[in-house]
Amino acid sequence: MDFDFSHSLVLEDETVMLRSLQESDSENLLEISMNEPETWQYSLIRANGRENLEKYIQIALKARANQTEFPFIIFDKKSGKYAGSSRFYDINLEFKSLQLGYTWYGKAFRGTGLNSHCKFLLLQFAFETLGMERVEFRADFNNKRSIAAMVNIGCTIEGVLRDHMPTLGSEARRDTIVLSILKKEWITEVKENLKNKL
Questions:
Q1: Taking a C-beta distance cutoff of 8 angstroms, is the pair 70, 91 a contact?
Q2: Taking the complete model, does pTM exceed 0.90, yes or no?
Q3: Are 21 and 28 in contact (CB under 8 A)?
Q4: Residues 49, 54, 57: CA angle, nearest 5 degrees
Q5: Is residue 119's pLDDT more than 90?
């Protein structure tokens, strides 16, 4: 399937709206960025503080222009506030695979079920609209909260890439855990299980 990276996209249900990230969204995410710097503890590209947030968004939009990523901003309909961001990346339409990540939420939105709603919409779009055969997830092996969230939505742990990446401001290298959901798993069990958690 061809995917037009230049078109705006909105995915939504009664709880959440994900729409294409825009340059002006720095204002919508600034409160989290300024007040919750620990959100990016495990990230190489951080969005804490106005300057880092603007740079983070510019990098994401450049990758969209290069047709390798598609970033979203997340709006929580219950509170009427912007909650965070997520994106498709390493998009390979020929191989029918992509990664889903760069996901972060402000403290007030963690553990509320918002992530399950977001992942349902993103996975449904990846498998049923884009025709992906595989959606991959990765995380710092020390990021237990993120790993638990991925397992909770139905990901299968595939393994660990040892000393895979550098860490910010340290000589230490991080181990990266790799998880995935396959299209056949989405169709036969993951979709229904995730829907039941909404």
A1: yes
A2: yes
A3: no
A4: 120
A5: yes
